[in-house]
Design brief:
This protein has a ten-stranded mixed beta sheet with strand order 1-10-9-8-7-6-5-2-3-4, sandwiched between helices. The chain has helices at 8-12, 42-53, 68-74, 95-103, 118-132, 177-184, 188-193, 195-206, 241-254, 259-281, 295-302; strands at residues 4-5, 30-34, 58-64, 79-83, 108-111, 137-139, 171-173, 209-212, 216-220, 226-230. The protein has 304 residues and is of the alpha/beta class. α4 crosses α5 (118-132) and α9 (241-254) crosses α10. It is 39% helix and 14% strand. The chain is built from eleven helices and ten strands. The two termini are 33 Å apart. It has a single domain (4-302), classed as Ribokinase (UDP-N-acetylmuramoyl-L-alanine:D-glutamate ligase), CATH 3.40.1190.
Length: 304
């Protein structure tokens, strides 16, 4: 399958939307990040910080009530909402109405980083979908559980037809090969051998943009368009790195980029930060929390 290479020259020909010089924070876009849990509060901080570093003007973080104060203290720029938790560490069904209210003011919504309890997370996503309208939605990490039947009985009032399910809104999925294998039932080795075909099939199946992450990251749109990016280094293979990537994409989407464009730029920026950090720290040893700080300078270089 033919795929366009995502290079610096390619990105300059696909410029990001830019706010007016006199625009306020509303003009730069409002991101809502639904992330974290009592065991992984840092995921919400990593994703939210990345969204702001990507240029978004406002941030709302919805996270577990038990850690919301910690997240709020770590992120004074954000509005932080605490959600009731299930025994397994997910968010309760009662959270749906609160999240729908918050999402109504957002220009992009990210769900998934650091979230636990796959059953609760899947139900939360499906309950929110009809309330998001045309708001771009990025499903990452734990939220990818929404693509396959839960191992326990589904509790939604309207059961999901898993065989026929397709998104009707603007959705981006961000699996790595292991997650793709889990939600499709395919062998991980087969996905790694033919990532272009796997991404294209998933995009068509779910009517969503797919960013299949790996040494070569493949982006696929439902209409069959493919892009690929090679770059970065093994130092990016560290806990929290994917949360940062998801946040970058959400921030760019809130600024007005399409999900395909936000994913292309996000993947390239994420890889470039690894290259920059390796100069300072070496290929191994830099931290996910250090990635976001590199983004504004890279944006200035790639999107003057």
């Amino acid at each position: 399958m033919q795929a366009d290479d995502i290079t610096s020259a390619f990105l300059r020909e696909w410029p990001l939307p830019q706010p007016r010089h006199d625009g306020d924070k509303e003009a730069r876009g409002h991101v809502m990040v639904v992330a974290g849990s009592r065991e992984m509060p840092g995921a919400a901080i990593l994703a939210g910080t990345a969204a702001l570093r990507a240029g978004a003007g406002k941030l709302t973080v919805a996270t577990a009530a038990s850690v919301s104060a910690v997240v709020g203290a770590a992120m004074p720029e954000a509005r932080v909402a605490g959600l009731a938790e299930t025994a397994a560490g997910g968010f309760t069904a009662d959270s749906t109405r609160r999240l729908a209210e918050l999402a109504s003011k957002a220009d992009a919504v990210l769900i998934g980083p650091g979230m636990q309890d796959e059953v609760a997370t899947s139900e939360l996503v499906h309950a929110l979908l009809p309330r998001l309208g045309s708001t771009p939605l990025i499903l990452d990490a734990g939220a990818l559980a929404a693509l396959c039947p839960p191992r326990e009985p589904h509790l939604l009032e309207d059961p999901v037809d898993w065989e026929q399910f397709r998104f009707t809104g603007s959705v981006l999925l961000t699996p790595h090969a292991g997650e793709m294998a889990r939600v499709t039932g395919a062998q991980r080795s087969a996905i790694e051998h033919e990532p272009h075909a796997a991404a294209a099939q998933a995009a068509a199946r779910w009517n969503a943009v797919v960013a299949l992450k790996g040494a070569t990251t493949v982006l696929a749109a439902p209409g069959g368009k493919l892009w690929q990016h090679r770059g970065g280094n093994v130092g990016l293979a560290i806990s929290g790195s994917g949360d940062v990537l998801a946040g970058i994409i959400a921030g760019l989407s809130a600024r007005g980029a399409t999900l395909a464009q936000a994913a292309a730029w996000g993947v390239a920026l994420h890889a470039s930060t690894g290259e920059q950090l390796s100069i300072r720290y070496g290929v191994l040893g830099y931290l996910a929390r250090e990635i976001s700080a590199e983004i504004p300078a890279l944006l200035r270089t790639l999107a003057p």
